[in-house]
Amino acid sequence: VARRSPTRILAKAVRLAVLAAFFAVAVGPVVWMLYTSVKSESAITASIWSLPSTETVTLENYRDILSPRAEAGLGTYYANSLAVTVVSVAAAVALGAAAAYGLARFALPGKRWLYYAFLIGMMIPVHVTLIPLLRLWGLAGDGLALAGARELYDGRIALAVTYAAFSLPVTVFILYGFFVNVPREIEEAARIDGATTWQVFAHVMLPLSRPALAVVTIFAFVSTWNEFVFARTLANLPAWMTLPVGLRHLTTSEFGDSMGRMTAGMTLAVAPLVVVYVVFQRHIVRGLTRGAVKG
Amino acid sequence: MPTPDERKAASAFVAPALAVYALVVALPIVYGLGMSLYKWDVLAESRFAGLANFAEIASDPVFWRSLGHNLILVFVSVAFQLPLALALAVILSGAVPGRAIFRTAYFLPVVLPSVVIALLWKYVLDAPGRGLLNGLLGAVGLGGLERTWLTDPSTALGALIGVVCWRHVGFHLVIYYAGIQSISEELYEAARVDGAGPLRRFLHVTLPGLERVIEITVVLAVVGSLKYFDLFFLMPGPPEHETELVTTYLFRKGIEDERYGYACALAAVLLAVSLAAAAAVLGLARRWRRGEA
Asked: For the whole model, what pTM was predicted?
């Protein structure tokens, strides 16, 4: 159908120009962050826009921001982020998959109501729970203190449990939608072979659901890894800080005014995320927009 | 009727998630609604105060100002951000090279942590002699416009809303793009055969095909704007609540001033406003669809 008239070529050029302009706006700040992180402080002072030249390119910003310091540093924040994210995502996917399966496959009085109870979790502003959760986790800490085990209280555990619960609504919603569309015959065949309900779920349903499980895992991973306000409220000690809170904390350190050191820290903080994103972008885009398109 | 066995199995599958959800989401909401009826500050003993906190909110100028900022954000998101996302999605769906690369790039800001975005854009919008935008303006001879965009009261709100749109436009764009892909190519062919140009094809094929998707993005944009927090909290602002939102005000009252009861009342108002807004948008959409049919 392609007719090559001048107006068509012009229209195509305009379209490409619009897309390219927006491309520059979308990735420009990130590209600037990358090249500023390898510029020396004097090169940055000379011009914040200029690209680093081969003579001035340096890794000293990375060396400084990673250097061992008196207070907890980037390494600690990384470890905390990783631990909190892995634990909470694993818990949310495991609990959410079981719940979605129970709701999709068995008759249960009031199960419609239960399903809606999970769904409404996607609509409510989580900030509503901020002060109550601070108070309730404080009470849990007080309880441990009364039992003489104050040191067992850990803001990172409070955070992981909280994140797991926050990830449940989307996980249940997406997996429920997947499970109800799987034909029952597949499970019935396994049942005739003598498999228990649990075995059917674990050895038949879950392996079948890998694409949907990937989607919910990625969704929970990105939102948990990036979360700020609950981390700031529930785990605000330097030893407990996750990357978002820690990075913000670094702006008040001796490196706070150094564009080079801060962009190096920011680059390190987003590097795994950006690599994972570029490699799995098809799944991630599908994961983060799935609920909306399916709805 | 479910058999007892079935009921037992279902309960075993659902109970663990339900317990965590009830303890970490439902219980705090109920607890917070209860606390909103108490005068409870960090130094004073808490005491029941009925609706006193809500009366105080009703006459609190900062609350109304914050809610006004949320409504401006709702308006800009729905009236500018969504149409921009739709326009870009339509252009991207046409025959252009490198579609996957564009899509990957547009979605990148959605994936980045808010804290990193806040730091990045602070560098862009920083003071004259420091900020990237001011440097650019100076270089093209518009030096007269240079200012500290985020703390100048006349530009702070606009600059912040701009960054919020930058962060989220890719999300809606990708939703629209996926929606357009799912519209049957035959409908476009039929419209072409009938002699419909690009504008008519957009109005009579693309828009009706995206009805549901648009409805959902409007709900997401409205509710998202009402409960927005991150960048408004993370980026520096002018000192007099010029960039306060309901959630950031809630945080200041509850966490910084330690006025727990008042913050919980603000949270209750926010919850009511968000749910009412979501219901209103869905109700309007339903009525609109019925009127059309």
From this structure: 0.89
